[in-house]
Write the C-alpha cells for this entry.
Amino acid sequence: MNWKTFAAMLRRDAHVARRNFIPLLLQTMLQPILFVFIFGQVMIRSGFMPQNYRAMLLPGIMAISMLMTGVQAVSMPLIAEFQFTREIEDRLLAPMKIEWLAVEKVFAGVIQALISGFIVVIAAWLVMGANVGVKFQRPLEFALVVFLVALLSAAGGLTLGCSVGQTQIGLLFSLVLAPMIMFGCAYYPWSALKSFPVVQMAVLINPLVYASEGLRGTLAPQVPHMPTLVVIGVLAVVDAALIVVGLNRFFRKAVS
Amino acid sequence: MGATVKTNDLRKIYNTPPPLAAPGSAIFARGKGPKKPKMEVKALDGVSLEVGAGEIFGLLGPNGAGKSTTVGILTTRVKPTSGDAWIGPHNVWREQVETKRLIGVVQQRPNLDFSLSAREILLFHAAYFGIGSAERTRRAAELLERFQLTERAEEIVRGYSGGMMQRLAIARAMMHDPDVLFLDEPSTGLDPQTRLLLWEIIREYNAAGKTILLTTHNMEEADALCQRIAIVDHGKVIAIGTPAELKHSVPGGYLVRVKFSAPVDGLADRLRELPGVNEVKVAGSSVDVYADSGGALVGAIAASASNAGVELSDVHISEPSLENLFLHHTGRSLRQ
C-alpha cells in the first residue's frame, strides 16, 4: 500500500472541500436548520407539537444530515468524474492500486459526514434552545453508532455513485433519497408506525431507519427506539455489504 | 532512461461501449436495465508490438482502428481479453502499480482535475507520485513556463481553451519524469504553432533517452516525429517499420489515381504494361496506378484510355507517402 499517494489524495479532497466550504456548509445546513426551526420552535410554541418532540427530532435530523452529506460528498464527484471526459483517470493513473482510490473516497466521505453531523447538532441545539432533552450518557455507544452512520453514508455514496449516470441524478434524489428520508424514521420513532404494520415492516430495508433509531437510542434514550445492539449489528452488516458492492462496481467502471 | 514497451498477441473484445472509442467504432446502446442489447466490438485482434527503449514509436490508423485500446491496455486502464503487455520488466496487468510509476499518459480527451487550478493539478499529480514539496514546486514552474501556461496557472482549468487543456495534460504527464510517455492523438485541437511547440518538446524529451509512444491519424505528424511506425486497422497491425521503409514498401512509391468516363474491361491490363507501372487496382471506373513516376505517366495513361474509347475525367498524383501506404494496404484513405 502506498500511503504517500493515499495521503496526497486526501489532501487534494480536503483542498477542494475547503475551497467550496461556504456553499458546502449552506447545502448541508440550511435545510435541517429550517426544519428544526419550523418543527422544533414554531410548531411547539404554537402548541401543535409537544415539548418532548425536540428530543425526538434532533437525532433524526442528525442522521439525515450525515447521510445526505456522505452520499453527496462521495457520489456526486464520482458521477462527474466517470463521465465522458473520465476525469477519474487523473487519479486512476497514480501509483496505487485502484481499489484504494475508492477507499480514499469513502474515507473522505466519512470525515465530511462526521463534520456535518457535528455542525448540524450544534446548530439545531442553538435553534431549539437549551431544553432539548438530549441525554449524553453513553458516549462509547454513541461514538460507534455515529461512525457506522458516517460509513453508511460514504459507502452508500460509493455504491450509488458507481451505479448512476449524470442523467439520472434527478431520479436518484426523487426516487431513492426522498422516500428514504420520509420513511427513515427521522421525524418520528419507528414504533410510531405500529398502526401501519405493513409500512413498519417495509421500512426495515431502509438503512436510514437504523441510523435514526441508533442515534435516538444513544442521544435521547427516553424516546422509544430500537435496541442499540440490534442497530449496531444491522449497520455493521449493511456497511460491509455496501463497501463490497461499491468496490466491485467501482472496479468495473474504472477498468474497461 | 526509457523503458521498452512490448505487447504479445493482444486481443480485446468489448461487450459494453468502450469509454474511449472514437465515434463510429461502436454502436452506443442506450436501453434500460436488462433489455440493453448485448453488443460486441472487436477492438483488437492480435496486436504484437515491440518498442525499444528511447524510441519514438507511432501507431497510425483511422478512427476506431484500435490505437486507443492498445494504449489503454498498456496504461492499465483496459483489461485485455487475452494476450500480454509489458512496460520494461513489468507485466502491465499483473504489476499495475510498478507499471504506473514508469508511465506518463496523455489521453485523447482532457481528463484534467477540473476542481483545481493548473499549478495545483501539476503539484498534486507530483504528490501522488511521492515527489517532495520543493522538487514538485520547481518542476511545476518549469513545465508551466515550457508550455506557456504560467500566466494563467492559478486559474481553475474549467475556463481553459481546448488547446490549453491539452498542453496542461502533456505537462502533467511529464511531471513525474516517466520513462515511457504515451500520447494519444496529442495534437488534435492544437493550432499549427502549438503543434510545432509540442513536436519540439516531444523530441527534447526523447533526446533525454525517454521512450515515446504516440497515436495519430495524421501522416505528417507520424512522418515528422516517429522513428518507427505501426499501421493499425481493424485491430490488426498491417505494416511496421521506419517511415522511409514503409514508404518504399509501396510498389513504385507514386500513386496516380485516375477516373475514366466509364468502366473499361481490359484497360487495367493495358495500363500494367506501361513502363514503370508496378501495380494497378481497379474499382469501377476509378483506377489506382502505383508506379515509379507520377506526372510523366499521365500522357501514356490518357493515350491508353482514348485507345479504349473512354476519356480521362480526373487525375490525382501523390508522391510516396504514408497515406499511399495506408491506401495500398487497406484500399481506404486514412481520411475516409
